[in-house]
């Protein structure tokens, strides 16, 4: 993992790429425009405060211009110098008034405007310019820069002199007011995650930007024609109102996009980032859009003066800075140095001091006019004197509350992780976690509980061994008593009374990956202070780390238990295999002797045998032979399960092997008066092992005999071609249950018992057939005849297919 560069104090150092330098240079160049806009506001003229506008009957003449409305009158007066004598008269000359223009804006308004604009400039320069490689940062860099510029320009005022460059500032303001909502829309569509609308319609934002620029060109063109005397004021009104609607509409869509992103985000940090950014944007822009600009669209007067909306808009850069620093937005812990942050906050407070001083000075000036020359000097001096103590206060507060605590907590968590790597059981985790929380959060009481299966592990620093009664509700990771933390959202009146009685005020679940392993309880801090956000973050991270290692220990224990169980099963399988092999081997010898003795007696070796004796002896021989087959199957199955032995494959005559099997088993078939009908060519060669092939045929024929009803027939057919040879055997028995067709070839599995035979096997005959058929390169399938009865088909290769492929 790559390491982030740090400065001498251990704080992350910003990587200045070419894009960063370009945007920083743009922000620095924009300072000149900010200064021009701020200076232009000092030259904007207005009507005298004692002038009665209600006495006018429109149209009226203002100097050499004819105006048709009060808004047009104010716009024409704004283009005249401050202190300029101006004649206002009716068009018919019946009334006329000579007025002297005054400065439209008060000093309070100008101070608010300058502080507001410069604050947006500072945020764009120091907060977003270093991170313009991120799309949200680039969008917000331009949004902050342009909004600050519109604030500094103040309004769309006629130039007091030549059209150019005097019309540049109005053009900047008109253009900025359509670019900003487009940027906010792009932020809403891409932050925190790009939503489907942005993915499916990548042309949407460029199209809206083009629409806004066309609207701005329309507005500026109409305004320019009016200023030069070739256009009417009414021609300005439509694009002006359309621009305000455009501003409100796409600002709203951008906010809706961020709300949608907030709902879809699964990460708590992203949700906090969106929440604070959305709060800052809505709080900063809603008063201006909804209470100042939109009322003018319907012909009404603004509900709030512009300077009040400027005060609200300061919330936006504050919220953005808070999101960047506090919630690690843009993938950095701290993107500006602490000293720069102190200066930024202190400068903001000094500006506020100056505004308050000027406001108080105006009240003093109204009562004692002689103090007028001294008011600005005193206000500026006091604000400057307060800069250093304010900066020091911010430094102590931020270092203590944010940076130092976070740094110490990060160090503590790193040490905790190292210690958890050495633990071997849950009790060690419990003891380690209780000690960690006691050292770093210093609560009056600590109780930690972990549960593994049905066993509880606990640590309690209250001095007794009792486990606090109660558990955190499912889905609630943390809860606290009201007033005990810096996060009201986790505080609840439903905090269990039993925990309160035991001295606990905070509960945190020990969980990871959706699995809860236990919980921990903390009492009040020994210092008497509440748990701040950094304390709660430390608590949550420590609980999560403990849960991760508890999970690992549980998995390790489960793995060991599984290995032991698997070894036990393997040992039992080996024992079963050895037992069955020995059992089959011990039975085969006496069974072979019984079979041999019965056959010798039947053959008259010891004398003449009566018909009755022959019938009994044939039964003994048949049963012994069937029992030998069962024992052979059992022995063969144990060999196959133990990785079947290697056997030699050669060309074998299937027809001859079938006839050999039929001759052996015919006596058994005769006992049930079954007719074994064989249809076979003179020779049918297959590639396999003769001994194993005979076992396979014996199993299939004996299986058919067991299920065939007496006095029926069993059909045995052999067919062959160049590559494959088929062996099919069909009986007239009850057939196969469709549910058993796939399972009857598995070891120790049998179909339904035969209603025509009391003899049952081990469920190994068909398993042996299937195993050796696949070993020989063939397959065996089972099914039912159309007219009833079971049908088994054995397909084997007629020759060595490997040699055939090599030859071809």
Could you characterize what this model shows?
With 808 residues, the protein is α+β, with helices and mostly antiparallel strands. The chain is built from 22 helices and 18 strands. The strands form five sheets. It has a five-stranded antiparallel β-sheet with strand order 8-7-11-10-9. It has a five-stranded mixed β-sheet with strand order 13-15-16-18-17, covered by helices on one side. A four-stranded antiparallel β-sheet has the order 3-2-4-5, covered by helices on one side. It is elongated, with a radius of gyration of 48 Å. Residues 1-16 and 330-337 have low confidence and may be disordered.
The tally of strands reads 18
Task: Please tally the helical runs, counting DSSP H or I stretches of 4 or more residues.
Answer: 22
Approximate strand percentage: 5-15%
Gap between N and C termini:
57 Å
Mean pLDDT: 78
Spatial order of strands in the largest sheet: 8-7-11-10-9
What's the overall geometry? elongated
Rg to the nearest angstrom? 48 Å
- Helicity, as a percent range: 55-70%
* Largest sheet report: 5 strands, antiparallel
Report the uncertain regions.
Answer: 1-16, 330-337
Helical/strand content category: alpha+beta
